[in-house]
Design brief:
- The protein is mostly helical.
- It has helices at residues 2-15, 25-33, 37-50, 55-67, 71-84, 89-99, 104-117, 122-134, 138-151, 156-168, 172-185, 190-202, 207-218, 224-236, 240-252, 258-270, 274-288, 293-306, 310-324, 327-339, 344-357, 363-373.
- 75% of the residues lie in helices and 0% in strands.
- Helix 12 (190-202) crosses helix 14 and helix 18 runs antiparallel to helix 19.
- Among the domains are: 187-288, Serine Threonine Protein Phosphatase 5, Tetratricopeptide repeat; 293-373, Serine Threonine Protein Phosphatase 5, Tetratricopeptide repeat (Alpha Horseshoe), CATH 1.25.40.
Length: 384
């Protein structure tokens, strides 16, 4: 908020020479300070209706709409300012923010104009580098990032942006020297720590991944890619306890991708704990297969029942339970084992598993549960 008010003050200073304010500035700034942007818009709009070319009013209204997320209306205000004053720097900067990557060609045109107006401002070159990077125009991105870094190497944003594009082009040595220069002055710079992890991992220099990766953990930062590279570094270094520790940290912080469970499972296997490994691998399976697959396995089971291929019916119901843990599938396996295969031993096994895991909710589920619980297999057979 303070940043935007500062930008607005600069904006109004630049345009005040063109017109005198027709509104009470204190009232408007009270609205802005209290984040009452709807009220500010209502207060300012009538003045614009009577003086549509007033740069100061357009500036007020553009800012209020921008902060109120009315981006199209804000854009109209700033575009009108540019029509009246093509070199208005704050209006150009707001138009770039509004474009925000969705309209890169428009942003590029505005930034080029800003570079002509302020050729020494490194941030404009960095912004151009960001846009070209998103457009996958690597050579252009590298050119602008390098120019931003050359003009302001002390700005860590310029250093990080340039280092990232260097890593994209496999220039690891130069990227490392840039990152080291930043981290020597600021050892807790998040972006440079993250890029240092990436650089060391991509170079397969796994020991060098550890220090910046552990700093990210201590700073409680959540960058899935960097932390995944850290856990893989520990795994490749055969430090399986540390690998598990990083996996658990990621899971606690809701970074629960398949690969996290998978490498934790592999680490447990390396530590001769196959039981824990298998439980994690089951989670991997559940994550890798869509929940709708349960319906498909269930439907396959029903179809095989109709075809009287009872073993395949049981196999599909059993798979559905293994993946998604729906106890009803165990009931179906027990019912077919008893009624169609006449295998009471197998039926008892499935019924026992069903009773152990079932939590019946619907009327039919409760009936099935009570039926199985009271079942005497030697006297009764369940109906399909």
């Amino acid at each position: 908020m303070k940043y935007y008010l500062t930008a607005l003050t600069s904006f109004l200073f630049q345009i005040s020479v063109f017109s005198q304010p027709v509104l009470d500035r204190n009232t408007i700034f009270d609205f802005f300070q209290n984040q009452q942007f709807e009220e500010a818009i209502s207060y300012i709009t009538p003045a614009l209706n009577s003086d549509s070319d007033n740069l100061q009013i357009l500036g007020y209204l553009g800012y209020a709409n921008y902060m109120n997320k009315n981006l199209n209306k804000a854009k109209d205000c700033f575009v009108n300012i540019i029509k009246l004053d093509s070199n208005n720097i704050p209006a150009l900067e707001y138009l770039i923010r509004i474009a925000n990557g969705k309209h890169p060609d428009i942003s590029i045109a505005y930034i080029r104009h800003l570079i002509r107006l302020q050729p020494d401002k490194a941030a404009y070159y960095r912004k151009m580098g960001e846009i070209y990077s998103r457009k996958h125009l690597t050579d252009s991105a590298r050119l602008f990032y390098s120019e931003a870094y050359r003009r302001s190497p002390q700005d860590s944003k310029n250093a990080a942006g340039y280092a990232a594009i260097l890593l994209d082009t496999k220039n690891i040595t130069k990227a490392d020297s840039i990152l080291k220069a930043v981290l020597d002055k600021d050892s807790l710079n998040i972006n440079c720590l993250r890029l240092s992890v990436r650089s060391a991992y991509e170079a397969k220099n796994y020991p060098l991944v550890i220090q910046p990766g552990e700093k990210l953990i201590r700073l409680e930062e959540s960058y899935p890619t960097a932390l995944t590279q850290l856990l893989l570094a520990y795994y490749n270094l055969e430090k399986y306890d540390d690998c598990i520790r990083i996996c658990e940290y990621m899971l606690r912080n809701e970074m629960d991708g398949e690969s996290v469970y998978y490498y934790e499972a592999k680490a447990y296997a390396k530590l001769n704990n196959p039981k824990e490994s298998n439980e994690l691998l089951q989670i991997c399976l559940a994550k890798s297969i869509s929940k709708t697959a349960e319906i498909y396995y269930y439907s396959l089971g029903e179809n095989y029942e109709i075809l009287k291929n009872y073993k395949k019916a049981i196999a599909n119901y059993d798979t559905a339970y293994y993946l998604f843990k729906n106890p009803v599938m165990l009931y179906n396996c027990g019912r077919i084992s008893e009624s169609n295969l006449h295998n009471e031993k197998l039926a008892k096994k499935y019924y026992a598993l069903y009773l152990k895991s079932a939590t019946p909710q619907t009327v039919d589920e409760k009936k099935a549960y009570e039926f199985v619980r009271s079942r005497n297999l030697k006297k009764k057979k369940p109906n399909k």
